[in-house]
Design goal:
Blueprint: no helix or strand
Length: about 80
């Protein structure tokens, strides 16, 4: 029988390779200015009130009885006396 002498492996510690720290690149926030949208001023359309003329209703001319007064008339009207039968 062949006897193999095993030599213990010397403990070789694993080399610690530090993780390279890659700094996060700082990207500055790009400031986009708020675009000011002005509301367009739409003027209120002025609708003029239509002028409705008042209908002129002519007043009916009632013929007034024309009474001629005789000036200095020498004729006197005597009252009519009914004769009793």
């Amino acid at each position: 029988m062949i006897q193999i002498n095993k030599t213990p492996n010397p403990n070789t510690p694993n080399p610690i390779t530090p993780n390279p720290i890659t700094p996060n690149p700082i990207t500055p926030n790009s400031i986009t200015p708020n675009s000011i949208t002005t509301n367009p001023i739409t003027p209120n359309p002025i609708t003029p009130n239509p002028i409705t003329p008042n209908p002129i209703t002519p007043k009916p001319i009632s013929p007034s009885p024309i009474i001629h007064k005789a000036k200095n008339s020498h004729i006197q009207l005597l009252p009519i006396i009914e004769l009793a039968n």
